[in-house]
Structure formats: structure tokens, C-alpha cells
Amino acid sequence: MLTASGICHSYGERKVLDRVSLTVGAGERVAIVGENGAGKTTLMRICARLLAPQAGTLQIDGRVGYCPQLPGLHELLTPDEHLALFSPAMGLTRGEGVARGRELLAEFGFPPKDRRAQIRHLSGGCQQKLNLTLALLGGARLLLLDEPYQGFDHGSYMNFWDHVKRWSNQGIGVIVVTHMLADLDLVDRVVALTPVLAEEPR
Amino acid sequence: MSDVATATAGRRSLARRHWAEHVLLPAEMAGRELTRRRTALGLLTLLPLAFYAASTSNSDYAPVLGGIAMAFSVSGAAIFCVMSSRRLDSRLVLAGYRPRELMIGRLLLLESLGAVLALVFSGVIVLGSHPADPGELIAGVFLVTLCAVPFGLAVGALVPSELESVLILIGVVGVQLTLSSDDPIAKFLPDLADHRRVPLRRRPVRDRVLGGQPSLRERALTVSPSVRSQRNVRWRTRGPAASAGRGRARRGRPA
Questions:
Q1: For B27, nearest residue in chain A (alpha carbons)
Q2: Who has the most CB within 10 Å: A89, A95, B143, B183?
Q3: How far apart are alpha carbons B219 and A63 in whole angstroms?
Q4: Residue B97 touches partner A, C-beta closer than 8 Å
Q5: pLDDT at B223
Q6: How far is A180 from chain B (nearest CA, A)?
Q7: Strand partners, A2
Q8: CA distance A139 to chain B (A)
Q9: Which DSSP string corresponds to A121-175?
Q10: Is B56 in the A-facing interface, judged by CB distances under 8 Å?
Q11: Using a CB-CB distance cutoff of 8 angstroms, which residues of chain A are in contact with residue B160?
Q12: What is the ipTM of this complex?
């Protein structure tokens, strides 16, 4: 489903990823861990094809759903309008997309009264639930979730992992970036990234 | 044969639907977002009017300043429209939109908004400055908007942050104001002040007063290289042979 090999990336002279390889099969749950600056988000952006790697190869089969760490939603639009905006890109009509999105939001415990509130008036947890919903809307075969539960309350957090298990059972590959050690029991495999050590000047 | 016609009609219908969903829907959402920024919309309208009103004591230059402010407003709106959407745009493209579809949608929206603004501003100038040829003035003001939107979108798309984008916008308009029309650099700048070609009726008294400020008037009329020929006609109306020159120029204008 996803095969990345020899991925390298630098920001200026700072090397973030050095020959990283990752393989994820259908229905597999993979956690990516690592300290700050280890390149987790960079690797996810490369896997989502939002960033071109400076070296290495990437092969992905099927649609990718990407839930970034920062939602980047339009603050003055409502959740329903976001669902409508994403729908045609995913081959859904506006009505179908909004209806499907509302179902997903309800599964995550999103309050129905907030569906027509502007994003800037929503809590961080609700924004994150919408963020996650947008990643799932198009029926992705691979989900890239970059710390997707930030701002979730405990119930929503536990509910999230139930969903991950269900998606996995449906054959969807799931990659989750996490800092929570308790999460590691809930995945099939853990990939640890370590910061690339800078070369000492001679 | 009828099958071929049906298939063609089906393809056209699909293309129309694709266009409506992939171009007009992002434009609609950008429009919804923009209309909810009421303060920004108010400033967008007030800025050119304020520039115009503040400089009405110099009637020749007032529409130019107002037009520059309108170019600022519209280009600025385009820049911020692109910048505020940048993060979500990457997700929309990942989801299946093409970047050009998002850009065309935004262009249509902002050109429409700019057309409304140009209409309001043209009306104010026509009433306030009594131009000799209102049609030409309105066309000029609309041309300014037409140029300002794609310029703002291009700057917003190519420049990484808001500060740099706004500085580029200020820089381009500022350089355009200070360059002589003969300068080769002027030919490569976007024509954000094309309405300077608009002929304004001049009152003899004001004409005499303004005659003491040639550099200001020259800048007002010659920033765009395209107005060079008109400028020459205008400048002949001043100086020792003013009356003869003015007479020729006025006879040449449409009634």
C-alpha cells in the first residue's frame, strides 16, 4: 500500500530525514514516534505528496487521507461548508459529501449544533474532529494521521482508537504520529525516528 | 448518429458539472469567507474613496490617487485570499482539485468584487471630477481592477509570506509612480494605473494653478507607457502656446 525507501530531506543545511524507509500494508496500523525535530511531520507530508523528498522513492496505491497536525481550516467558514468544499474533489456531490461528513462527525461525537458555527467559534477538539473527518471523507485506502487527537477529551480519545481498529479491519492502512506511549499497544508496528546528528566541523 | 449526439451532450453536461463543482464551488466558499470579513470589505471600499476625497483639491490627480488605492485594495485582497487559503489549498489539491481550478475560482470571485468596486468608484469620480469622457474613465477604472486581481494572485502565490507580498505590492506601485514613461523598466511593470489616460475637463483657473506643479501632473499622466501619446497632447496645452494647443486638443475630443 505504501512503500517509501531511502527518503532524505533537509531544511537548508539541517538534515531532517536521512535514508528513511517505511512500508505499510493494507489494514496495518503503524505508529511513528520520535522526539521533537525527528522529522515525523516531514515524513508524513512526504507520504501525502505535499512535499517532494530530496532523495528516495515513494509508491502509494489508492487514495490517501491526510490529517495534518495543524488543521489550517478557514476560520470564517462552517463545518458544513468545509464538507461541501471537499466533496467534489473526492467524487461526491455537495449533498452526498455533507451528509457523509455529518455521519462521520456524529461518530466522533461532534455536537450537531456546531455544524453551522464558524470554525473560529469552535473548540480545538471540535476543529480537530472536523480535520479528521475531512481526511476520511473520500474513502481513503491509506490514512496519514499526524497527532490527530490533539484537544480531544478522554472519551473522544478512546473512541478514536476504536475507529482506528475498525478502519484497520476494513483494510485501510493507518499511520499515526503519536507521543503517547500508551498508544503503542494499540498498533501493529512502531517506527521510531531519531534526529539526524549534524556532522562535526573539521 | 443519435447515439453520438447523446454521448456528446452527456460529455458536455459532465464538463459543465465538473466546472460548476471544481471552479464555482471554491469561488463560492471564498466569496462566503470574504463577505464575512465586513471590516475588511468596508476598508476595501473606503480606501480608494478616502484617497480620492483627500486629494480632490487637485482634481487631476485625485482619480489617480484613488485608482492607486483601488489597485492596492484589490491586489491586497487577492494576496490575502491566496495566503489565508494556502494551508487548506494543499489539502484540497491532495483531495483531488487541480491548483488551476482553485486559482480560476478565486480570480472569478475577485474580478467580480473588483468590478463592483470599480463601478462605485467610477460613479464617484464621474460625479466629483466631471471627466470629459466618462466612458473612457469607466473603462480605465475597470482596467485597473482587471490588472490588479491577477497581479495580487500571482504575488500571493509566488511570495512566501504576507509581509513580503505587501512590500512587493507597495514597491511595484511606488516604482511605477516614480518612473518616467521613457524608462524601459516601466514597460515591464503591471499597468495598475491605466485610468490615467482618462481625460479630465480642466477649468482655466485650476489649470493655471496646477501649471506650477508640472512634476506632479506629469507623474499623474505618464506612469503608464501607454498614455505617452495623450500626455504629449496634454502638455502642449500648457506653456506659451497654451491657448492654441488647448483648442486643438478639445476639438479633437468627441462631443
A1: A85
A2: A89
A3: 56
A4: yes
A5: 35
A6: 26
A7: A24, A60
A8: 11
A9: GS-HHHHHHHHHHHHHTT--SEEEEESTTTT--HHHHHHHHHHHHHHHHTT-EEE
A10: no
A11: none
A12: 0.88
Hey, what amino acid is at A152?
F
Per CB-CB distance under 8 Å, the chain B contacts of A121 are: none
A194 grid coordinates = 531519531
Rg (Cα) of chain A, in Å, rounded?
17
Q: Report yes or no: A19 and A56 within 8 Å, Cβ to Cβ.
A: yes
| Residue ranges for chain A with pLDDT beneath 70 | 198-202
pLDDT score for A78: 96
Please list every residue in chain B whose beta carbon sits closer than 8 Å to the beta carbon of residue A93. Answer: 21
Q: Determine which of A51, A75, A76, A142 to mutate to test the interface with B (most B C-beta atoms within 10 Å).
A: A76
**Nearest Cβ partner for B94 among A66, A70, A84:** A66
Q: What is the pTM of this model?
A: 0.79
User: pLDDT tens for residues A134-181?
Assistant: 999 988 999 999 999 888 888 888 889 999 999 999 999 999 998 887
Whether B4 has its CB under 8 Å from any CB of chain A: the answer is no
DSSP per-residue letters across chain A = -EEEEEEEEEETTEEEEEEEEEEE-TT-EEEEEE-TTSSHHHHHHHHTTSS--SEEEEEE-S-EEEE-SS----TTS-HHHHHHHHTGGGT--HHHHHHHHHHHHHHTT--GGGGGS-GGGS-HHHHHHHHHHHHHTT--SEEEEESTTTT--HHHHHHHHHHHHHHHHTT-EEEEE---GGGGGGSSEEEEE-PPPPPPP-
Contact B33 A88 (CB under 8 A): no
Q: Which of B21, B26, B37 sits opposite A76 (nearest CB)?
A: B37
Q: Which amino acid makes up residue B45? A: T
